[in-house]
């Protein structure tokens, strides 16, 4: 789907929505001198840089083996204002030689760092500053979750389309599903007590190949209030007292590279891994990435008119 078409869909109805980064893990090329420096520190040590500190949480050495060379060191990145940006895992092993990984803290993804002409942006933007000071070059995006948060429940319409075999074809992972065929990679999970069951399930969809994209559709407000306590997600979305439902896609390295190769043909800077933090800070990029994955996982086609109904259409009441 083209960007202009997506914008049209999102402005057709009066609804509240956000495309949010809910998880981000990046692999970097790790300078050996950085690892050699870090292995000299003990757990709890602070290493001060300009505007942030590395805090050693696990120096990789058991207390009884202080002379053993560590193969893995973990350190938190704490900004000068006290914000936990995330965790580094530095490596000196055969499997991950010359590589380290950074996982952005979930709260940092929803904590407002500032505003510009495109709106507010999160503390994720500080990651580029950390990379520069540690002399790290990006190797790949290891894993990312993009969540489409909306202020209404999309499940009634989705379930209605799944059951309506007389009017709609259902295409899953590029293959039409026969009426009596098991839907591959599809599952419904109901939460219940001993006396009652939730009316609507959490829906999971994935492809068979390992590390392939997946999607989870669920009542995010209920998950926050009953389980995670992540009230900062509610504050970030600014939906007020409205419902909060989430359509959350997970994408890993190979599929993200394929996406960048595709969009990079039209917008060159969108095709570079070096710009991934900046790109994920752009709603336009996040939106296109979400649509790209969602359309690969599932869509419907009207048997009489050939009209295609996407998950974005369902999530934005555009049908």
Keywords:
4-stranded antiparallel β-sheet; 319 residues; 17 strands; 34% strand; 11-stranded antiparallel β-sheet; elongated; 11 helices; alpha+beta; 2 domains
Describe this structure in words.
The protein has 319 residues and is an alpha+beta fold. It has two domains: 3-23 and 148-315, no CATH class; 31-135, no CATH class. Helix content is 28%, strand content 34%. The strands form three sheets. Strands 2-3-4-5-6-1-9-15-14-13-12 form an eleven-stranded antiparallel sheet. The longest helix has 15 residues, at 283-297. The two termini are 16 Å apart. The mean pLDDT is 92.
Secondary structure tally: strands: 17
Distance between the termini: 16 Å
Integer count of domains = 2
Strand order of the largest sheet: 2-3-4-5-6-1-9-15-14-13-12
State the helix count: 11
Mean pLDDT: 92
Sheet with the most strands, sense and barrel status: 11 strands, antiparallel
Helix coverage percent? 25-40%
Shape: elongated
Structural class: alpha+beta
Alpha-carbon Rg, integer: 22 Å
Low-confidence stretches: none
Strand fraction equals 25-35%
Order of helices and strands: HEHEEEEEHEEHEHEEEEEHHEHHHEEH
